Amino acid sequence: MAAYRDPVRRQRGGSSVVDGRGRQLVEADVWRRWSIGWHVFFFALLAYATAASLIDDAGSVANVALRVIAAAALGAWYAYWLIVRGGASRGGLVYLAGAATLWVVLLASHPAFLLLGFGVFAPLCLQDLRWGLAVVVLAAGGWIWQLVAQGEGISWPTLAGIGVFAAGTLLSVAYVATIVRQSRERQRLIEQLDATRAELAVAERQAGILEERQRLARDIHDTLTQGFTSIVMLLEAADASLGADHPSARHVARALRSARENLAESRRLVWALRPQPLDRAGLPEALDRLTRELSEETGIKAETVVTGDPRPLAEQQEAGLLRVAQEALTNVRKHAHAAAATVTISYMPDITVLDVHDDGRGFDPDHAATNRTPDGGMGVVAMRERVHELGGSLEVESRPGGGTTVVAELPARGIGSLIPAAPSERR
């Protein structure tokens, strides 16, 4: 039987085990530390530029107040968008407009705030290279505007130097943004890989369960079933050779009846572990065979109805629904005293529904859910647990004298999603 294996990878030269989730946590932690470091750098640069502007040229009280208020507003604006909200990717234009306005006001008041522009806009540049281009153009324009405002002439060498500085900055931003984008793409691929590994692990587990069931079915068939068959044949021969008045005839008859019952139970167990009708046909055909056999053997008017467009389900889903139908029809055969029974399989976009209805004497579902059935099986409990293991639900509607309806619902999803669900509805 295939065992579940967690997708882990051991580092070469070490003893630590790092899985995909661990790598994601490490990368997220590294990015968080770098973000904290950048925020600290920005506020330090803001404090330095403000202090430098005040020491170099205090100016009037109004000018000092304007610088302090604008600096405080810029710090609050930065903190709200890049710390509290965790990034400006969703409100880039709003952040850029507000930050650019405050930065221009500070730059107009003193040239010490020029370099602060890169601290303001660099985090936004990493979100999208187009933002980086806009920031570089804005910074270069602010530099030129500052030179003009100071009355200094702008020579061609100065413009060339500004252009080289802008191009170098843009290339640096593009390089860092590419690294960030690749890191995020790598994280996305790791998440997809982890999801695929989890689906493969579940598929391996389900395949192992099916393989083990098939092995048990073969072993039971080759040992118990064959043995009971031989015992039945020997007892039938003994019963035929003994006269009805023979003292041992009554004991042989009882032994023959017990052997036949146990032979039927062993065949039922083999059939439940490995439903052979599914080996040769689809689920609707297998259900139709069940109802035809019930009609031929008991005289009950039984039929199978298919609604919707039939589609192939996961192997364990089809096997589970078939076993539920078998269990429900077995109860109809043994206990319901019904005149008619209908098995309906409905294929809907999101779910597949199996409905088994009979017009028999009915029973109390609450009592049956907590008690064994007369044939020794677990009845409703077994059916409900089987469906819950496949991520579905099962309901039983019945009342004494009012017939019985068993409804099993399974989600229409792939094998990778068939993770056993918590039996929250078990009684």
Task: Describe it.
- The chain has 427 residues and is of the alpha+beta class.
- It has two domains: 1-11 and 18-274, no CATH class; 280-427, Histidine kinase-like ATPase, C-terminal domain (Heat Shock Protein 90, 2-Layer Sandwich).
- It has twelve helices and seven strands.
- The chain has helices at 20-56, 61-84, 92-109, 116-125, 129-149, 156-241, 249-273, 277-280, 283-298, 315-336, 365-368, 380-389, and strands at 8-10, 17-19, 301-307, 340-347, 351-358, 393-398, 404-411.
- A five-stranded mixed sheet has the order 3-4-5-7-6, covered by helices on one side. A two-stranded antiparallel ribbon has the order 1-2.
- A hairpin with a 5-residue loop joins strand 6 (393-398) and strand 7 (404-411).
- Helix 5 packs antiparallel against helix 6 and helix 9 (283-298) runs parallel beside helix 10 (315-336).
- The longest helix is centred in the middle third of the chain and has 86 residues, at 156-241.
- The two termini are 31 Å apart.
- The model is unreliable at 1-20, 372-378 and 414-427 (pLDDT under 50).
Spatially, the strands of the biggest sheet line up as: 3-4-5-7-6
Q: Give the rounded overall mean pLDDT.
A: 76
Q: Which structural category do the helix and sheet elements fall into?
A: alpha+beta
The total number of structural domains is 2
How helical, in percent, are the residues? 55-70%
Give the percentage of residues in beta strands. 5-15%
Note the main sheet. Answer: 5 strands, mixed
Helix tally equals: 12
Distance between the termini: 31 Å
Query: Which shape, going by the Cα principal axes?
Result: rod-shaped
Question: What is the H/E order?
Answer: EEHHHHHHHHHEHEEHHEE
Instruction: Give me the Rg, rounded.
Output: 39 Å
Count every beta strand, where a strand is a DSSP E run of 2 or more residues.
7
Task: List the uncertain runs.
Answer: 1-20, 372-378, 414-427
Oligomer: single chain
